[in-house]
Amino acid sequence: MKKILLVTDAWAPQINGVTRVLDAHIHALKALGYQIVIIEPGQFRTVSLPMYPEIRLALFARRRVAKMIAEIQPDAIHIVTEGPLGWAARAACLRRGIPFTTWYHTNFQLYVDIRLRGLLRPIYALMRRFHSAAVRTMVSTESLKSELESTGFKHIVIVPLGVNMDLFIRNSAPPLPPLPKPVFVYFGRLAPEKSPEEFLKLKLPGTKLVIGDGPDRTKLKKKYGEGNTFIGYKRGQELVDWLSLSDVFVFPSRTETFGLVVVEALACGLPVAAHDVMGPRDIITQGKDGYLSEDLSEAAVKCLGLSPTDCRKKAEQYSWEHSVEAFFNKLIFIR
Question: Does domain 3-162+320-330 match CATH 3.40.50.790?
């Protein structure tokens, strides 16, 4: 049985795109008979990341990570994130001459730049240095691959992401109170890098539904609660039921590398109104399953005329089975 080691600074109880991809891949790889071993922050002393208290960073991890890798003796090592554990695993692999792969999941430099100006270039350079040592760096879209290669990243390969089509299917009779139609929904993290405030400011008919949580939830609900319906974080069938009440998904983020929520909305038959940026432009077909525009109000209203069936068909192009197969084929096996 092949033993695959995943090293990640993002892990439960965090809920984000990285942890959700990990959950899907780990479940599928185990079902195929592979042994998955995880190195994650819960195995170390940690400290909260400033501005994101739910994200814990491992302290003094370098020596212990090296020891763990030696004891685990994996057949393949994949470094998921560029945090303390990722850097520790990278150092251990380089010191012992062990090949490894990485994944560029998040435009972290853009997240930081939103809060702390002036750090964009040095952080981007640090990210490039981190991934330069990998035999392969995985990304989810052609747009991201092209952008990274144009700035000096090497050995970039595409591993597409997916959606659980059995879960994300529109419920024709969700057990929820009806909302005034049409219903425009935002679901995702309530944090500056996701630009939820842009959605909250939009002038739209019917209901504006906000699904999600994050560091800005209290502030945003206090400021925009009168014209928006905040219902907190939802997951699983409960999330699907709320999406089934909705008519259009409005996605204001400009920092995505993919956007899992886009394909989840499409799977539920929701057309997507988004900006013409990386992530949405890799998924949406203009005028078919969504509209890309600088004017999200106009795009959202135009989406009301699109076919839920076409949206579902687009989501069917993204499967976790295909994603896991591509991931496994891009790993570098030590033995």
Answer: no
